[in-house]
């Protein structure tokens, strides 16, 4: 048994049945005859108002006759009259509102475009202001460094004496404690000596005097002439081999048949004549071109395996990797990052290189880690190399920039189209944002750009709502066809805000019914244990509706509950109970009274329809 039935049984006494004796039955028959008689008089041309007057008089007679149900029927009559008056007033205002609607029909699209443009300009202004602040700080730092440099130069000019300079620079790649450790410095010195010896040996063995260039050129010319001689011999041998093959085939054919009056020599001569006759059908130019092309293809196939460019390319890549390792070991991480990002064929633009930079736990004076330096260099080299990093590498770069809170770099990478877009990047940006609605850090705007590129429309709507752009988000969802009930409930749970609830309550479907009734919003907030936000929404909802309609006495909450055909009585009772537990007694009593009246109206309508059917 639900709470409404228990409440009614405890408040009212049990009512007697409607028909108790023969007098009541006679009365009902008279009433039915009266209704039929009056309807026959009016005919088919009767309007609704005349039918209403007939049933109104009959209803008054029923109220006067049935004394036990007089309070209930009186209340029903009152609600009917209130509803009919509201419909009549609405029809009278319809003509005025139609004219006003035509005037306002062209306003929403213009206002929507202005708002969208205003949001875009506001985002652009904020981004420009942020960049201006950074540029001002960089300009101030450059001016300070210039003043210090000029001051030092003036001091040097004023001192005529030459003094011995002491090198006080720190050793690259070593901390302050390591620079004072003698055994470690001794190992470092031995390593540098070994590298110096290797460089000297490489200089002596790898590089030769310029005079050797002429000798190498002469040697190359001899090799080329010898190659041409071999090619000509090869072509002559091929032609001879082909003729020998023709002669052999002719001899084998002669031995298989042995025709009379013919020798083996005659068969071979006839075969050669047939072969040369076929060759004569072709033009001499085509024949020469064919021989040239054959020789060139033969030359390519012969010397392709001996091409020294492949060996040189492998040596260059090996030297490139060795140079990167040297820079990395010397602690020149910025140079190593740029070196790796611009590597040929992307040999160092890999996850392994990124992991190597990730293992270095060091911060530069510029306020960024070697890992972020590599990521920035990787993104800056996209246009030069013509290839974007893979999805996994792009996600790692995004994660690195977020860990160091460098949203300016992220915005630059996205604007330059340097990333391989994926849903994981949008999720990372969304999870990094810790702002209350609306978002002020800029993560949601970047995530919106990512999801727009991926055409994930629902995620785009969520990002717009989290930025506080509720009207833009709902309009985008309507255009893309994502205004589904399940998605809207998920949107309420993900981005709860009064502005969103008001926007959803104002959206209607083709039948004029709200796509998300207030009952669905309140029971969703009850599940989230956030009814305090629901109370704020109800207050703003009543104010906005009264202000929009210009009728302060209008009970907008009652109309909203009456038009909610989705929420059941049990769900309304749970919402009312939750409001009472949260201490919102006034709004809970108001809603309880409205729910009771609505249930009574619905039950009375059902009883009346049933009784009329039986009669």
UniProtKB/TrEMBL annotation:
Record's keyword terms, sorted: Coiled coil
Signal peptide: none
Coiled-coil segments: 111-202
Pfam families the record matches: Clathrin_H_link, TSNAXIP1_N
Keyword DNA repair: no
Region (Disordered), start-end ranges: 286-310
Residue spans crossing the bilayer: none
Protein name: Translin-associated factor X-interacting protein 1 N-terminal domain-containing protein
Organism field: Patella caerulea (Rayed Mediterranean limpet)
